[in-house]
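Before relying on records like the one below, remember that each one covers exactly one chain. Contacts with other chains, cofactors or solvent are not represented anywhere in the record.
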Amino acid sequence: MTARVLLADDHVLVRQALKSLLEREGFEVVAEASDGHEALRQTDKLHPDIAVMDISMPMLNGLEAAREMRLSSPNTKIVLLTQHYEEQYLSEALEAGVKGYVLKSQAASDLIHAISRIVRGEVYLSPGVSAAVVEAYCSRSGRSRDRLTARERQVLQLIAEGKSTKELANVLGISTKTAESHRTRLMQKLDIHETATLVLYAVRRGIVQP
Protein backbone atom coordinates (compact mmCIF):
# COMPACT_ATOMS: atom_id res chain seq x y z
CA MET A 1 0.00 0.00 0.00
CA THR A 2 1.27 3.48 -0.88
CA ALA A 3 2.40 5.52 2.12
CA ARG A 4 0.37 8.70 2.69
CA VAL A 5 2.62 11.67 3.46
CA LEU A 6 2.17 15.11 5.03
CA LEU A 7 4.75 17.74 4.05
CA ALA A 8 5.42 20.66 6.41
CA ASP A 9 7.91 23.40 5.55
CA ASP A 10 7.52 27.17 5.61
CA HIS A 11 9.22 27.51 2.21
CA VAL A 12 6.83 26.87 -0.68
CA LEU A 13 9.61 26.01 -3.14
CA VAL A 14 11.03 23.42 -0.77
CA ARG A 15 7.61 21.80 -0.37
CA GLN A 16 7.08 21.73 -4.12
CA ALA A 17 10.47 20.10 -4.69
CA LEU A 18 9.87 17.49 -1.99
CA LYS A 19 6.37 16.79 -3.26
CA SER A 20 7.66 16.16 -6.79
CA LEU A 21 10.39 13.90 -5.41
CA LEU A 22 7.95 11.84 -3.32
CA GLU A 23 5.31 11.53 -6.02
CA ARG A 24 7.90 10.37 -8.56
CA GLU A 25 8.70 7.53 -6.17
CA GLY A 26 5.05 6.55 -5.78
CA PHE A 27 4.22 8.15 -2.44
CA GLU A 28 0.93 10.02 -1.99
CA VAL A 29 1.25 13.57 -0.60
CA VAL A 30 -2.11 14.06 1.11
CA ALA A 31 -1.49 17.48 2.70
CA GLU A 32 0.95 20.36 3.00
CA ALA A 33 1.55 22.80 5.87
CA SER A 34 3.65 25.93 6.35
CA ASP A 35 3.97 25.82 10.16
CA GLY A 36 3.68 23.41 13.06
CA HIS A 37 0.13 24.35 13.98
CA GLU A 38 -1.15 23.66 10.48
CA ALA A 39 0.80 20.38 10.42
CA LEU A 40 -0.99 19.30 13.60
CA ARG A 41 -4.41 20.27 12.24
CA GLN A 42 -3.81 18.35 9.03
CA THR A 43 -2.51 15.33 10.93
CA ASP A 44 -5.51 15.29 13.29
CA LYS A 45 -7.78 15.39 10.25
CA LEU A 46 -6.01 12.95 7.90
CA HIS A 47 -3.74 10.78 10.09
CA PRO A 48 -1.06 10.30 7.41
CA ASP A 49 1.38 7.41 7.59
CA ILE A 50 4.38 9.74 7.44
CA ALA A 51 4.87 13.39 8.41
CA VAL A 52 7.93 15.06 6.87
CA MET A 53 8.61 18.30 8.75
CA ASP A 54 11.24 21.00 8.74
CA ILE A 55 12.70 21.38 12.22
CA SER A 56 12.66 25.19 11.85
CA MET A 57 9.12 26.45 11.33
CA PRO A 58 7.44 29.61 12.64
CA MET A 59 5.06 29.69 15.65
CA LEU A 60 5.51 25.96 16.40
CA ASN A 61 8.75 24.29 15.37
CA GLY A 62 9.10 20.76 14.09
CA LEU A 63 10.27 19.34 17.42
CA GLU A 64 7.29 20.69 19.34
CA ALA A 65 4.91 19.62 16.58
CA ALA A 66 6.45 16.13 16.74
CA ARG A 67 5.87 15.90 20.48
CA GLU A 68 2.21 16.81 20.10
CA MET A 69 1.74 14.69 16.98
CA ARG A 70 2.97 11.60 18.78
CA LEU A 71 0.05 12.01 21.22
CA SER A 72 -2.68 13.02 18.77
CA SER A 73 -1.75 10.64 15.93
CA PRO A 74 0.51 7.90 17.36
CA ASN A 75 0.52 5.85 14.15
CA THR A 76 1.98 8.73 12.13
CA LYS A 77 5.74 8.29 11.78
CA ILE A 78 7.72 11.54 11.81
CA VAL A 79 10.72 12.52 9.69
CA LEU A 80 12.51 15.75 10.58
CA LEU A 81 14.42 17.71 7.97
CA THR A 82 17.25 19.73 9.47
CA GLN A 83 20.53 21.46 8.77
CA HIS A 84 21.81 20.52 12.24
CA TYR A 85 23.86 17.42 13.07
CA GLU A 86 24.79 18.44 16.64
CA GLU A 87 23.91 16.10 19.51
CA GLN A 88 21.56 18.66 21.07
CA TYR A 89 19.16 18.57 18.13
CA LEU A 90 19.39 14.83 17.58
CA SER A 91 18.74 14.14 21.26
CA GLU A 92 15.65 16.35 21.24
CA ALA A 93 14.39 14.62 18.09
CA LEU A 94 14.82 11.09 19.43
CA GLU A 95 13.15 12.02 22.70
CA ALA A 96 10.24 13.48 20.73
CA GLY A 97 9.70 10.09 19.11
CA VAL A 98 11.01 11.05 15.67
CA LYS A 99 11.73 8.04 13.43
CA GLY A 100 13.75 9.82 10.77
CA TYR A 101 16.38 12.57 11.01
CA VAL A 102 17.43 13.74 7.56
CA LEU A 103 19.94 16.50 6.87
CA LYS A 104 18.55 19.02 4.38
CA SER A 105 21.79 18.95 2.44
CA GLN A 106 21.16 15.25 1.77
CA ALA A 107 17.34 15.30 1.47
CA ALA A 108 17.29 14.57 -2.27
CA SER A 109 19.24 11.36 -1.80
CA ASP A 110 18.16 10.38 1.72
CA LEU A 111 14.45 11.19 2.07
CA ILE A 112 13.08 8.35 -0.08
CA HIS A 113 15.43 5.89 1.60
CA ALA A 114 14.39 7.21 5.02
CA ILE A 115 10.66 6.85 4.39
CA SER A 116 11.09 3.36 2.93
CA ARG A 117 13.00 2.27 6.03
CA ILE A 118 10.54 3.90 8.42
CA VAL A 119 7.54 2.27 6.73
CA ARG A 120 9.24 -1.06 7.53
CA GLY A 121 9.42 -0.09 11.20
CA GLU A 122 13.03 1.07 11.27
CA VAL A 123 14.65 4.33 12.39
CA TYR A 124 16.69 6.33 9.87
CA LEU A 125 19.44 8.88 10.51
CA SER A 126 21.31 10.60 7.69
CA PRO A 127 24.88 9.35 7.27
CA GLY A 128 26.01 12.91 8.01
CA VAL A 129 24.89 12.43 11.61
CA SER A 130 28.07 10.97 13.05
CA ALA A 131 28.05 7.61 14.78
CA ALA A 132 29.87 9.21 17.69
CA VAL A 133 26.98 11.61 18.26
CA VAL A 134 24.45 8.76 18.24
CA GLU A 135 26.55 6.66 20.59
CA ALA A 136 26.97 9.59 22.97
CA TYR A 137 23.21 10.03 23.08
CA CYS A 138 22.40 6.34 23.53
CA SER A 139 25.00 5.75 26.25
CA ARG A 140 24.30 8.85 28.26
CA SER A 141 22.65 8.04 31.58
CA GLY A 142 20.98 10.37 34.01
CA ARG A 143 20.43 12.95 31.30
CA SER A 144 18.64 16.01 32.69
CA ARG A 145 15.31 16.55 30.99
CA ASP A 146 13.96 19.85 29.79
CA ARG A 147 12.48 21.77 32.71
CA LEU A 148 9.90 23.42 30.48
CA THR A 149 6.44 22.08 29.69
CA ALA A 150 5.20 21.84 26.11
CA ARG A 151 3.14 25.02 26.57
CA GLU A 152 6.13 26.87 28.06
CA ARG A 153 8.28 25.88 25.07
CA GLN A 154 5.56 27.19 22.73
CA VAL A 155 5.43 30.48 24.65
CA LEU A 156 9.24 30.71 24.58
CA GLN A 157 9.33 30.20 20.80
CA LEU A 158 6.69 32.86 20.20
CA ILE A 159 8.47 35.37 22.45
CA ALA A 160 11.79 34.61 20.74
CA GLU A 161 10.11 35.22 17.37
CA GLY A 162 9.19 38.71 18.54
CA LYS A 163 5.48 38.15 19.17
CA SER A 164 3.79 40.64 21.49
CA THR A 165 1.64 39.40 24.37
CA LYS A 166 -1.49 40.07 22.32
CA GLU A 167 -0.09 38.17 19.33
CA LEU A 168 0.97 35.33 21.60
CA ALA A 169 -2.59 35.14 22.96
CA ASN A 170 -4.05 35.05 19.45
CA VAL A 171 -1.76 32.25 18.30
CA LEU A 172 -2.44 30.11 21.37
CA GLY A 173 -6.14 30.92 21.56
CA ILE A 174 -5.99 32.28 25.10
CA SER A 175 -6.73 35.61 26.75
CA THR A 176 -4.14 38.37 26.86
CA LYS A 177 -4.13 38.11 30.65
CA THR A 178 -3.38 34.39 30.51
CA ALA A 179 -0.66 34.99 27.92
CA GLU A 180 0.95 37.58 30.19
CA SER A 181 0.81 35.09 33.08
CA HIS A 182 2.53 32.45 30.94
CA ARG A 183 5.23 34.94 29.99
CA THR A 184 5.80 35.99 33.62
CA ARG A 185 5.94 32.39 34.92
CA LEU A 186 8.34 31.39 32.15
CA MET A 187 10.76 34.17 33.04
CA GLN A 188 10.51 33.32 36.73
CA LYS A 189 11.08 29.62 36.11
CA LEU A 190 14.18 30.27 34.00
CA ASP A 191 15.29 33.17 36.20
CA ILE A 192 15.58 35.25 33.05
CA HIS A 193 14.07 38.72 33.19
CA GLU A 194 15.11 40.32 29.91
CA THR A 195 13.61 39.44 26.54
CA ALA A 196 16.99 39.54 24.79
CA THR A 197 18.40 36.96 27.21
CA LEU A 198 15.27 34.84 26.75
CA VAL A 199 15.82 34.88 22.98
CA LEU A 200 19.44 33.80 23.48
CA TYR A 201 18.27 30.92 25.69
CA ALA A 202 15.77 29.83 23.02
CA VAL A 203 18.51 29.83 20.37
CA ARG A 204 20.86 27.79 22.56
CA ARG A 205 18.10 25.24 23.26
CA GLY A 206 17.36 24.88 19.57
CA ILE A 207 13.80 26.20 19.95
CA VAL A 208 14.42 28.92 17.36
CA GLN A 209 17.18 29.42 14.85
CA PRO A 210 19.61 32.38 15.07
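Residues 87 and 135 are 10 Å apart (CA to CA).
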